[in-house]
Design goal:
340 residues; alpha/beta; 9-stranded mixed β-sheet; 4-stranded mixed β-sheet; 15 strands
Length: 340
């Protein structure tokens, strides 16, 4: 069992049931989630000591967020308490040609206003094997960006492997602001995860592939992977490759470069999608587990893609699958027969 630390914001997600629109419902389902929290849950489900670091108010809604993580075995001991509010986002699930829609209400959340003094990162990173963060966290606020930097520095002091999911969010910051913050943070990163849009908007790299037209041929990504590794010295560069035919039908595969070889996973045709929120986070969680426990990078990649394919079939942000279920799919068992 490895100790895996993640840093970020867990939010209250309010969603209409099924594929209903915001304007036609009188109630919302309560769902908890957020990039790095989702990764922590995945890692806990695979048997790791998963530690989630954040800040949440002391009131009952803050405690409900803590309880949601504890339910799946995530270590919440390093969640600072204080601040006034839990970030909220509203998520309307799309269908067919109607896309899903997210509305944020997260300004002034506890983690956005947290101070470095709220966290003892040397204590947190002690005996850790892996530290994961995403581009969402430094986008929340300048304070959160500074906390991310301090966490990365502590991870390096303790010899911890660091991964990032670039995760550009245009509703949180501009490409110019993102690059001014993200590029300096790359010096701490060993494993860089992101799709083609993330790499362009966060780091300024554009692949030679027309993804909007459904062209996700791996050859279009090889040049950008090599350039990213040359500039930042990553150990691995990894990208998910999503073909979006509709809100409920996607093609899904991924690619990994280790500085020597390129690995491309098998492709999954996901139809119908139940909930794609958290799909990238489930990939990151699967990749971390794979790189920590499996013999080769291609095995880790296949595990990660299978894990994220399964996530698309599960409502909510968290990927509630076991290692055995993921391995079964990665080995080719995709018939969906009832398990008796």
């Amino acid at each position: 069992m490895s100790k895996i630390v993640t840093l970020g914001e867990i939010m209250l997600r309010l969603s209409p049931q099924g594929c209903r629109r915001f304007v036609q419902v009188d109630s919302f389902d309560v769902i908890w989630g957020g990039g790095e929290a989702n990764v922590a849950v995945s890692c806990a489900n695979y048997g790791h000591h998963a530690v989630f670091v954040s800040k949440l108010p002391e009131h009952e809604i803050g405690q409900a967020a803590v309880n949601a993580l504890r339910r799946y075995g995530v270590d919440t001991a390093h969640i600072a308490r204080g601040g006034k509010r839990v970030g909220i986002y509203y998520c309307e699930t799309g269908a067919s040609m109607r896309p899903s829609k997210v509305i944020y209400d997260r300004a002034g959340s506890a983690i956005a206003e947290a101070d470095p003094e709220d966290f003892d990162f040397d204590e947190i990173m002690k005996d850790a094997d892996w530290f994961h963060w995403s581009g969402i966290t430094p986008a929340i606020s300048d304070k959160a960006a500074e906390i991310t930097r301090l966490a990365c520095e502590a991870a390096k002091r303790h010899g911890v492997t660091v991964s990032v999911d670039l995760n550009f969010r245009k509703k949180l910051w501009t490409p110019e602001k993102a690059q001014s913050i993200m590029k300096p943070l790359m010096q701490y990163v060993d494993v860089c995860i992101g799709n083609e849009e993330d790499a362009e908007l966060c780091l300024g790299f554009k692949p030679d592939a027309d993804v909007e037209a459904g062209n996700t041929d791996a050859d279009g990504y090889k040049g950008i992977f090599k350039a990213m590794m040359a500039e930042f010295g990553f150990r691995y560069v990894v990208s998910t490759l999503r073909e979006s035919f509709s809100a409920t039908h996607n093609g899904w595969k991924a690619m990994l470069y280790d500085g020597k070889d390129f690995y491309q996973s098998k492709r999954y045709d996901i139809d119908p999608i139940i909930d794609r929120v958290g799909g990238g986070d489930s990939f990151s969680g699967g990749l971390i587990h794979g790189l920590l426990t499996m013999d080769t990078p291609d095995e880790a990649l296949e595990f990660a893609v299978a894990a994220s394919a399964l996530k698309h079939t599960i409502n909510g942000d968290f990927n509630l699958v076991t290692e055995a279920e993921v391995k079964a799919l990665a080995k080719g068992n995709a018939n969906g027969r009832v398990q008796r």
